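Thread: quick sanity check before group meeting

JM: Hey all, I'm pulling together slides for Thursday and realized we never actually wrote out the predicted structure for the chain we discussed last week. Dropping the sequence here so it's in one place. If anyone has concerns about the input, flag it before I start.
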Amino acid sequence: MKTVNLLWFKKDLRTFDNEALHEALKSGIVIPIFIIEPDLWKLPDHSSRQWEFVRECLIDLNSSLNQIGLKLIIRVGNIKEVVIEFMQHYKIGSIYSHQETGNKWTFKRDTDLRIFTKKFNIEWHEFRQSGVIRGLKTRKGWAQKWEQHISQELISIPSKVNYSIDIKSQELPSSSSLNLKKDKCTLRIRGGRTNAICRLNKFINYKIENYQYSLSSPLKAFEGCSRLSPYLTWGCLSIREVVQTIRISKKK
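JM (edit): ok, ran it. Output follows.
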């Protein structure tokens, strides 16, 4: 059986400054996957409005992956079922992903997957992408660790791969097919890295100087805030990329 590595996209929907993608490609053939978990989307902290944003992010991500010769494989279900599916056709060398800062449900899902991967001798490599540092016994030295992480060199978009694997992807479901309650918002931010870069540039060029004065003002916050939170939450931008971009802009 052919050995492959699964690149599990979670809240890191980008190809730029993506350590999991970078490291996975060093290890051989990579199959990028994103799993739509219906049980997760039923929770009260998820909504149709959020799903439509994520759906747009996934379309943009797949376009970016296509440019380097990869294809995003969509599955609806749970991660263990998907890994078992691929185990029927390939030898799974490793799983690569970023650590997820989510809710109790996602934490338990990851804990269960860790047990599963150990049982089947599959290595699971997780990489940190935010200020959260797991397993700290004390906050002493946290700021230095955060600065060390945030100052690391940004990882470029990988070169095009020289292999091709023909795997059929499921279609991206609509909100209604996921049985998500309508959550209409006429001013909803549009998803995807392309939109994220436009929003970041707009913030730096037009808003950043007044940001500290607008942040807490009921009258100014709507226009004065960066509105980057959704893009950071779903990883269209990395926090390291945003911080370094802002620091460079302040020097000009």
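AS: nice. The chain has a mean pLDDT of 92. The chain has eleven helices and five strands.
JM: adding both to the slides.
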